[in-house]
């Protein structure tokens, strides 16, 4: 979204290029906020329609699921997209290109663990976030009405993976279930009526962030009455039960798998390009794929080397948005026949949101050095990141109006999606 908006404004609207966005969904959700959709604290009004956005910004939107590339003829092949009722919304078709950018993100990595795909919920797509939201709401309703037979009148939610996704989801679910208690589901007002457990294989939470932040996040989750099992691997999942590496079992009505990422499965079956770590497309410093000069890859879909840290760039929104800004300039260079340049990533730090008013993280900058933030200020900084994304794709005026409208709506509608 970030890249297509930039290219439309600088090339499409000036008639210098014909720009097409293909997506398998009809609307855009900023992926770092998926846990808020899953908890019901954000609703459909936060989504941006591709149809409306493309019309306003002067690019074409094509609904379709990426299925492969015909390199000789330069066509992107698309699989059909079906509605929830299995009605075909778009047929198999092909879209021509001169320059192609693959930015189809990633999906959860089950590391081959038995039973995960059958018995876990995921948080990779808007559809999965909505599925999780209704599963949690239904579970709470069934407990309230007596339709659910649970031990000690308590429901249990387990989240596998203590990275940013798992940790943010745990905090958001704690807040959401407390809100449900205030919105008519009386049994949720009873202390310990919702048990939330985060299971992490390594010895600390949010392993990609500095150790001091992991400790603060752990402390914050304990304050929110979230159980954390560190150094614990899940070896098997069956219906409502997790088998742990130490031989123990853990029962849970809902199990969410958020234990790291791998490449989007469409890439594995569809593209004959060189892949790197986690099955992502290998790109050079210009972000061109290693076999096809006219094909770029970015964001979670790309495996791009980070020379300063001697590893691949992490799958983060911050990497994707810096690559979008870089690719706008890079594509303009390619079109005008100028030499391409190399992408350089700058780590500005990371923030982990822990509920509607708190966050923890570190910000990095030349003037600041590394600064640890916690609490309300950190949460404001986190919200500002979302605003920056909104402003990049909607413009500052719309982003500001949408932010104020969303603040105003919170005063007149339930804080949670309750249906
Ligand atoms: C709950 C959660 C919290 C997160 N929090 C943070 C955070 O705090 N900070 C941070 O830096 N990162 C965070 N991340 C990671 C961040 O969201 C990703 O790194 C970032 O969104 C990657 O951007 P992308 O453009 O590569 O992919 P995505 O944002 O995943 O976009 C991929 C797009 O491709 C479309 N698509 C997928 N498959 C196909 C297909 N086959 N055909 C057509 N279209 C397709 C999708 O519909 C989507 O629009 C979080 C992720 C999650 C899930």
From TrEMBL:
Q: Where is the signal peptide?
A: none
Required co-factor(s) are: FAD
Q: Which GO terms describe its molecular function?
A: NAD(P)H dehydrogenase (quinone) activity
Query: Mind telling me which SUPFAM superfamilies this protein's record contains?
Result: FAD/NAD(P)-binding domain
Residues forming the FAD/NAD(P)-binding domain are 10-324
Supply the InterPro entries for this chain. FAD/NAD-bd_sf, FAD/NAD-binding_dom, NADH-Q_oxidoreductase
The name on file for this protein is NADH dehydrogenase
């Amino acid at each position: 979204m970030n890249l297509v908006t930039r290219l439309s404004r600088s090339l499409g609207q000036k008639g210098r290029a014909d720009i097409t966005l293909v997506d398998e969904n009809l609307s855009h959700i900023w992926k770092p906020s998926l846990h808020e959709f899953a908890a019901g604290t954000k609703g459909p009004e936060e989504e941006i329609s591709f149809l409306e956005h493309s019309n306003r910004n002067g690019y074409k939107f094509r609904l379709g699921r990426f299925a492969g590339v015909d390199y000789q003829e330069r066509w992107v092949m698309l699989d059909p997209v079906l509605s929830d009722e299995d009605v075909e919304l778009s047929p198999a078709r092909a879209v021509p290109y001169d320059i192609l950018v693959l930015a189809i993100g990633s999906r959860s990595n089950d590391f081959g663990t038995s039973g995960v795909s059958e018995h876990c919920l995921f948080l990779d797509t808007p559809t999965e976030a909505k599925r999780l939201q209704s599963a949690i709401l239904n579970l709470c309703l069934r407990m309230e009405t007596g339709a659910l037979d649970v031990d000690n009148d308590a429901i249990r939610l387990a989240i596998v993976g203590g990275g940013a996704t798992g940790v943010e989801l745990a905090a958001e679910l704690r807040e959401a279930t407390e809100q449900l208690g205030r919105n008519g589901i009386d049994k949720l007002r009873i202390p310990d009526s919702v048990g939330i457990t985060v299971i992490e294989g390594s010895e600390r939470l949010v392993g990609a962030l500095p150790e001091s932040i992991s400790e603060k996040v752990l402390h914050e989750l304990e304050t929110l009455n979230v159980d954390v099992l560190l150094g614990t691997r899940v070896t098997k999942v069956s219906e409502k039960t997790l088998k742990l590496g130490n031989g123990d079992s853990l029962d849970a009505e809902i199990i969410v798998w958020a234990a790291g990422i791998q490449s989007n499965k469409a890439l594995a079956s569809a593209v004959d390009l060189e892949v790197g770590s986690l099955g992502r497309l290998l790109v050079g410093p210009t972000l061109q794929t290693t076999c096809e000069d006219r094909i770029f890859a970015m964001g979670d879909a790309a495996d791009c080397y980070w020379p300063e840290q001697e590893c691949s760039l992490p799958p983060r929104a911050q990497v994707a948005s810096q690559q979008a800004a870089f690719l706008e300039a890079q594509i303009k260079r390619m079109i005008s026949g100028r030499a391409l340049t190399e992408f350089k990533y700058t780590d500005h730090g990371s923030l982990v949101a822990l509920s509607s008013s708190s966050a923890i993280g570190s910000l990095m900058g030349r003037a600041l050095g590394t600064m640890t933030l916690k609490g309300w200020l950190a949460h404001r900084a986190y919200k500002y990141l979302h605003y920056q994304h909104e402003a990049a794709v909607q413009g500052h005026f719309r982003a500001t109006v949408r932010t104020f409208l969303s603040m105003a709506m919170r005063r007149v509608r339930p804080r949670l999606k309750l249906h």
